[in-house]
Amino acid sequence: MKIEFAKREDWEECKWLWIEAFGDEKSYIDLFYHLFVQKDNLLLYWIEGEIVGMLTLLPASLRYIDGSQTAVKYLYAVATKKSFQNRGVSTALLNAAQKFAAITCLCPATKELFSFYEKRGYSTCSWIKEKRYAQSELSVLWVNFEQAQNKKDFSLLEKEFFVHGQSSVKLQEKQSSSRLTAAAVPLKMKLKKWKITTISAIQYARFREVSLAHLSYIFWDDELLEKILLAEGVGGSFYYGISNEAGQIEAAVLGSMHETQLTVKEFLGEPEYLEEVLGALNFFYQAEKITVRLAQAFPMGESRPFVVFSMSIPPVYMGLVMD
Q1: Do 75 and 55 contact (CB within 8 A), yes or no?
Q2: What's the per-residue H, E or C state across 51-115?
Q3: E strand or H helix that includes residue 5
Q4: Where are the alpha helices (DSSP H) in the chain?
Q5: Do the beta carbons of residue 264 and residue 288 sit within 8 Å?
Q6: How many H helices and E strands in the chain?
Q7: pTM for the structure as a whole
Q8: Looking at residues 155-175, what average pLDDT do you find?
């Protein structure tokens, strides 16, 4: 048995272990290795020349409200080959990882795994709130209806579109026609006029810093955050800025759509803007269910544990992590 960092020639075997453990597409795994794996961040557990376990260490910082920072390693893709499970492989890798950082942390994939990591010395120090909506609960906003009829894709998002505060509509698609029809319903708008538009990773990063300055939170440097957003995008995610008439970003959103489920992994902005933004996004997605992750400070949603740490620390917001 030995634990050591992977060499380039080990990658292909690691990718097949990833597929066995998580079932992701090979194309996504290839991209992850291209973007994130370096000579000193992919730990492997070997038994008799066979890779039976692995984990990846990603560098991050915890930024506290008082301005101080602590370096951490975020652990990702912790996996053990099925035929070697329950033999202490993951535990040995977790212990080895702590040699390379004062604090390590990770997001357990299931509720059951929280107790698994707690038994190995980890503590839950990050919670999020989740707010769930059924489609019937969302009033989809009026979004340049004349241009948008017959379109249910992202072409308008990429070109920028305006949401006006005079009224909103609940959109319905008739089975017998390809045209969308609208029935006006009243909605008190918080923003008189704003637009959703594509923004760069750097713009997202700067707005994120401003929005989260009142919280303790996980901070990724610009290069790594850009890679995370790229990987999220290839995996089916999107991120947009919401700006006012003067072009100032008022909110930002990172999410993904899978089948009929729209998931917003991070919403940055004032709570009163949330449902308007969701309504505008759902004009295109027409999701049947929407789930939004929110910081603990939000006045809505139900709290749940999210990230565990190798030592007990003050609560931190960890919304934007790879999970």
Answers
A1: yes
A2: EEEEEEEEEEEEECCCCCEEEEEEEEEEEECHHHCCCCHHHHHHHHHCCCCCCEEECCCCHHHHH
A3: strand 2-5
A4: 11-22, 26-36, 89-97, 111-118, 145-148, 155-159, 201-211, 222-234, 274-285
A5: no
A6: 9, 16
A7: 0.83
A8: 38
